[in-house]
Amino acid sequence: QAHLVESGGGLVQAGGSLRLSCAASARPFSSYAMGWFRQAPGKERELVASIERRGRADYADFVRGRFTVSRDSADDTVYLQMNSLKPEDTAVYYCAARVSPYDSWTYWGQGTQVTVSS
């Protein structure tokens, strides 16, 4: 059923690192633009980073310089390397996909919890 599956979340101390993975399931997403979103309790879902089919990446201001998004076409997997984590990074992180940067985000994973302790 789910076309995207996130993994790699967990509990980490402030200043630590985590790497999230988003793997394709049932169908390939190698030709899609991919994105990472997050949602904290009581907050709106927000875009963290995105990466186009050929690897061009964009970042939200609040993670630029700390997070890196990448993709492996052979494995059809997208990664989010998170360094220098802060307590305010605590949220459920979701992987999403869209046909192109000009379309809406139409495919979503179940989400993975990231908790950063102070």
* Cα distance spanning the termini: 37 Å
Largest sheet: 7 strands, mixed
What low-confidence regions span 5 or more consecutive residues with pLDDT below 50?
A: none
Class computed from helices, strands and strand pairing: mainly beta
Count of extended strands = 11
Q: How much is the average pLDDT?
A: 94
Overall geometry comes to globular
Strand content: over 45%
Number of helical segments with 4 or more residues: 0
The helix/strand series, from N terminus to C terminus, equals EEEEEEEEEEE
Helix content: under 10%
Rg over CA atoms, rounded to whole Å, is: 13 Å
Task: Give keywords.
single chain, 118 residues, mainly beta, 7-stranded mixed sheet, 4-stranded antiparallel sheet, 11 strands
Write up what this structure looks like.
- The structure is a single chain.
- With 118 residues, the protein is mainly β.
- The chain contains no helices and 11 strands.
- It has strands at 4-7, 10-13, 18-24, 33-39, 46-51, 57-59, 67-72, 77-82, 91-98, 107-108, 112-117.
- Strand 5 (46-51) and strand 6 form a beta hairpin.
- The radius of gyration is 13 Å and the shape is globular.
Secondary structure layout plus pairing:
Layout: E1 4-7, E2 10-13, E3 18-24, E4 33-39, E5 46-51, E6 57-59, E7 67-72, E8 77-82, E9 91-98, E10 107-108, E11 112-117
Parallel strand pairs: 2-11
Antiparallel strand pairs: 1-3, 3-8, 4-5, 4-9, 5-6, 7-8, 9-10, 9-11
Q: Can I get a quick summary?
A:
The chain has strands at residues 4-7, 10-13, 18-24, 33-39, 46-51, 57-59, 67-72, 77-82, 91-98, 107-108, 112-117. It is mainly β.
